[in-house]
Amino acid sequence: MRTLRWQPIVTLLLSLFGLGVSIYLTITHFSPHALVCVSNGTFNCEKVTTSAQSEVFGIPVAMLGLFYFVPMIALCLPVAWRSTDRRVHLARLILSIVGVGMILYLLIAELFIIKAICLWCSSVHIVTFVLFVIIVTASPLVLGPESGMVTADGYDESFEGA
Amino acid sequence: MAQDQKKTVTGGNTPKPPARPGGTSNQSAKDRSRAQSRPVSGKAPAGKSGKATGAGRPKPGASGTGGGNKPRPGGRPAPVAAPRRFSGAMMAWAAVGLVIVVVAVLVVVKVATGNSAGNTSYTPVTAAPASVVKDVTSIPASVYDKVGVNFPAAAQPVSPPIKLKNQPPLSIGGKSPAMLYYGAEYCPYCAAERWGIVAALSRFGTWSNLKITASSHTDVYNTTHTFSFHGATFTSPYLTFATVEQYSNVPVSGGGYTVLENPTKEEQKVINDGQQFIPGATPNQVGFPFINIGNVALISGATYNPGILAGLSWTDIAGGLNDPTNPVTQAVVGTANYISAAVCASTKNAPASVCTSPGVEAAAKSL
Q: Would the pTM count as exceeding 0.80?
């Protein structure tokens, strides 16, 4: 398998940062007074975090961030990046795609519905996007035919077509 | 050859079928490749016999003679290339590019359609009706005393101000004790706090030129009905009250609100010096409202949730202030008691009728 050099540590650090901000936003969702943020016409964290769009199916978006970053941290651990189980890398890739889909929805909500931008939320969005870029561009390395990955049924695809 | 094929062979090896152009599956890749390279013609490959063996069919056993085994000049024709596919890296970067394009389109559409905040309506500032001012400035003392600092009907308790210790008395414009309010008309937390300020200070002096308005129509707790201190005056023998409504509630295109007034240098210093006492405050981001009561206590933000005023008009709010069981009354009067207690601490408990009242004394104990 080709060696990944910086991707494991960078994705892990980004996931930890994202988790930290998500925890803070979860706390401030239930205690708005705890939110420290710029407040003017365009940037208004409290307006965003208390809007109707701050919950999806009754679940605060900030908590959805927790549900995203906790497994992402596990999937971005160096041992996970070194895993020879294809399913680990597929799970990481799928999770990153789900994450970027979510931030596109939240961006539309901020720009066109709430009409305000939450800087704290934007930091999470940026982290999620960067994770997506790193994971997607590293996917050929860990999921390609030369990766030496072993499929779930034990078939070694690295020898396919030799 | 046909006769050979009809023979019945017992034991031994099964005779191989004759070689055909293109070879058979039993041949090695090398032999197949060599067979594919032979021309299909009536002439036999050059060899010792030089005899033609018939159109299209190589002579059996001819592979053992010379000529047929010689590699053809010019090499073998290149094998058919497999159809080219997009590499994984290309697809990955294409996916990233797609996301970037989508985000860029969203931003461009947003910018092109303009910030609609500039077109949003706002509540104009008008003179406060006399009845509203009277209701707020004439709350019976019994209501202040019954409410005290108990808020059973309120969804959330009223937060006490931040008590300051060992600070010199606040002086503004050479006058002391003084109290400073720093806020904005658009601000919903300022909207909530002004009700308590007006009520509290009415016990220490006289208001004039009070205005009414409402907070931003697009901000959180939108359109909270309230007063405005811009242009209002407060006169009192006990303290000086300075107000700064820095922004209006009139939105401007591109975000933000129009500027009404800026704090003086002295007032700005009071604001800046007070940030160190506010948990979570950052030097360059002062939260609205900021209220310094004689350097005895600070209020940053609202002491109660502005949501309690949602949907209520000025008359609704003011008219219910006689009822101590009303949650709005408890929030407004509770705030007023806290402010009164801090003012009393800076005025050395003057006037006594206010500062020794049960409601204010209860608030003082809670500071």
A: no
